[in-house]
Amino acid sequence: MAKQIIQERMLIGGRWMEGKDSISVYDPGTAELIATVPAATTQDVKLAISQAKHGAKLSKNLPVHERMRILHEAAAYIEEQSDLFTRTIVLESSKTIREARKEVKRCIETLRLSAEEARRIQGETLPFSQMPGHESRVGYVYRFPIGIVAAITPFNDPLNLVAHKVGPAIACGNAVIVKPASQTPLSTLRLAEAFEHAGLPAGILSVITGRGADICDPLVEHEDVRFVSFTGGYETGKSISHKAGAKKIAMELGSNSPTIVLKDADIEEAILSTVSGAFGVAGQNCIGVQRIYVESSVYEHFLNRFIFETKKLKVGPKTDESTDVGPMISEKEAKRVEQWIEEARELGATICYGGRRTRAFLEPTVLTEVPQTATIATQEVFGPVVTIETVDSLDEAIELSNNTVYGLHAGIFTANVDQAFHAVHHLDFGGVMVNDSSDVRIDGMPFGGVKRSGVGREGVKYAIDSMTEQKVVAFRLKQSLF
């Protein structure tokens, strides 16, 4: 019997709509067609924005307690339907079933955080009398919604990274239009269903599925879109920033994150943490460990034990509970990383373990002696590959870590608090994790980087700050208060 292909619809202004054309969605592990989604057009974008203008008025006028209720009920729906959401993530993405369960839990947390932060959107009083001639004025500042938020999301966290844009937008009274990654649109559609179930008024949330080349430009360029939140690659982010014009932007654009291991560190802890940080989600993680710098006296021990632990990882089907590393998002991407590994080898790098590819599955790969001229040394690999190099001092490790155009997260393992603080103050990154790998994030923290790693910060509270504007209010009284 032929497998039934689900024909999904997109959500525009409260209506589930089909499209004239469609995009196929494949399981990256099997290359099987699992669903089709509408290929939105420029006209669909215009309709979504038109509906969002109405939705923004509705959202702005929702009482805070109602925003909170909607967010909490959406979270509760996802919790009740956690198996469905887990299966959806597994089906369309690279995540193993264990990784998918964690993402569903994080999404629930993100929405609940959004509900709680909705009650904490506060202003401040202004002492106008600080300036002579203003003794009869009193005033304050409060925050108001920015209006329409455009959210463009990646494939590697197809549910929680969407929640990180939608949750804060609703919490502070905006409308939001989501353009999910073409490879993984299904989780976003299920999230939209959760908000529909929670009673979110029509028009506040739209999900337009389609090819970025067709619909991103008219979305980000539109004058009525006042904030663009993008997670993805640097070149795309650069293009969006040029086209968006005079509006607020927040972008997380990836990294090639380093972790430093000093001789006084708990080496076993450092090994387990960096193995997990390097190869989780098949390395498709913006804060995943890509470069490790180990102090020379413990380098050989660290390298040997790291390889030993890496060999334990099971590469296999995403639905298998024992699988540690699933496929990359596509065979094309796996071939790209394979080519980067081969380029590094040709330039003199040593492949200590891994490097073999089967369709979209790439073995966890450990490289040493990688020259700085290799692509894999300077760019974000976004695959299950890590480089391990020896250093003679912390300062050398810091210099090598900073020798990048990126700056999202870094990690350092040391038992010396002075060394830790030295690293914190000299590593040029948006986050420094002490006695952890770079791969650490909670949903309530400010998340973002410097240099080519992005602009602004995510994390619920910090996203709300970006998605609101400040308004100054001043009252002139009949007589001075002084």
TrEMBL record:
Name a Pfam family for this protein: Aldedh
Q: Which UniProt keywords apply?
A: Oxidoreductase
Give the reaction(s) catalysed. (2S)-3-sulfolactaldehyde + NAD(+) + H2O = (2S)-3-sulfolactate + NADH + 2 H(+)
Could you name the domain of life of the organism this protein comes from? Bacteria
N-terminal signal peptide:
none
Give the EC number.
Answer: 1.2.1.97
**From the Swiss-Prot or TrEMBL record, what is one GO molecular function term?**
lactaldehyde dehydrogenase (NAD+) activity
Question: Is Cell membrane one of the keywords UniProt gives this record?
Answer: no
| Primary enzyme class | oxidoreductase
Q: Where is the Aldehyde dehydrogenase domain?
A: 16-473
Q: Which residues form a coiled coil?
A: none
Family, as annotated: Belongs to the aldehyde dehydrogenase family.
Q: What does the record give as the function of this protein?
A: Part of the sulfo-TAL (or sulfo-SFT) pathway, a D-sulfoquinovose degradation pathway that produces sulfolactate (SL). Catalyzes the oxidation of 3-sulfolactaldehyde (SLA) to sulfolactate (SL).
- Stated name of the protein: 3-sulfolactaldehyde dehydrogenase
